[in-house]
Amino acid sequence: MTRWYAEYFTADYWSFARHEYTRERTAAETAYLLQVLGEHAPGRRLLDLGCGTGRHAVELARHGYRVTGVDVCAWALEQARSAAAREGVRVGLIEGDLLERVELPEADAAICVQAFGWGRDDEQLALLRRVRERLVPGGLLVLDHSNVAAILSRYRARDRFEAAGDTFDFLRSYDPLDGRSRGELRVAHADGRVAVLRDDVRLYLPSEVVSLVRAAGFELVRADAGFTAGAAVQPETRYVQILAVAAPRPRPAVLGHRGRGAEVDLRWAPDEIDFVRDAIDDAWAAVGDPREPARAYSLDDPYGSGSAAPVLARHFGVPLDPGQVVTGAGTTGLLHALAGPGRLLHTAHAHPDLPAWSAQRGAELRVFTPGQDVAGERPTTVLLERPGVRGDVLPLEQVAELAEAAAAAGGMLVVDEACANYLGPRASAVPLTTRVPGLVVLRSLSKGYCCGGLRAGFAMCSPDVAGAVRQAVPPLGTSALSLEVALRLLDQGDVLAPLRQAVAAAKPELVEMLSGLGCRVERGHPALPWVVTEDELPPWLAGRRLPGLTRVSVPLSAVRRAALRRAAA
Hints:
Keywords: Aminotransferase, Methyltransferase, S-adenosyl-L-methionine, Transferase
Protein name: Aminotransferase class I/II-fold pyridoxal phosphate-dependent enzyme
Domain Methyltransferase: 47-139
Domain Aminotransferase class I/classII large: 391-519
Structural class: alpha/beta
GO molecular function: transaminase activity
């Protein structure tokens, strides 16, 4: 189906538009674009979305930008191509419908001037998300739109314009229920030719455009009025320019494990399996023939709560109602499901998955420190890692205070306890779910249990937020086989006690060795099998690099500890 705008912006339209988009207006708009691009764009690769005849693209290319223009109208692109040739500049041109799948090159910035609102809201949002994916992190979006408040203040159903012997009649109607202006432009040329061009435009308030931009994964810089940098937008402002930067692209933290390590690789601890292998074997033995649970499709228990709640209650020593439990595809899968719009508070070195996915869905991210007043921030979600990457374990009474503050603001506290396995079940915040509101505690069997491949995760919730978690997490997220093995393993009790003892015995040697290499070491909790340092490691030693930190796993086996001693000697 041909969309209206594919047949609208032709030579007949531009016979009128040339009187509106004068040289002076184009020069003023281009001067503004040059200013904001120079201030905020991280590079000079530029997308011009809906470039038309190239009135901005050509001038921006003349100032050194590597411009790629995209437009659906072949006639307009031919004019842009000719204009670039006259000016002696190179402009890449792509013919395509931006509301469909157009292959866009990577860019440092994108501009869209008077070319927004042609489709439905969901199509505009999809377009903005595709643009964000093609912008480098921190890349700039300049999105110009017509403010419906200003338009409606002087909206006329009929209008006429005459110039150079041509007559242009506009017939319009505005539907306040869908926010669209529909109409036609009748062009009567001086030579007697008549053309009828029909349009169907979604008109937005600035606040609506900002919401779409944020939902697409951009962070708002500011809004300008009338192509004037820093000018405040007023209800009567006709043209509004939204400036936003692309938030970091979601990149699952597991991808940070890729690549080869150094001579001694302490990015992870493969020798943890030596302390839990017997328990894993016992769990599989208890399952028996895996073919039966592999065939199971638990429609009568889609969230795994019926089978999981009794085991989790025994494991954590607290009564849990099945309605408080939701299973999912590991902690990562549960975090992905819980990512959403709103306002997310997270600690400075939080695991990146939830913040990145939330930003992609339009969330506002803010860093907080435990102990500050989070209720005043009115968060949708507060993310707490317990233990944190530095090995700190927030006391349970402070966890309870955080949950109550989040709930009082209408939000929830998500406690990521993926690494709390090392501390034992009695150190968990799960018991708090029976007495404080707004709390979700996440657990899985990756860390310590060495069973990440099961993809079994558990969300244990305060009753007041359990329903919201179920709405977010897809049912049947964990296979029946994985869930049964995981529960058999958990039902053995605290099987990681030998691992904790081994970590406590081996950790001091690693701390002493790193200190001898000139590294300032943060030990963290004695049961956690890693330390962190802000200093550079020697080239023969690999740790897990994090923003501003390097995490070094404690070698547990005699072989790995000997390898570390030899390399450090």
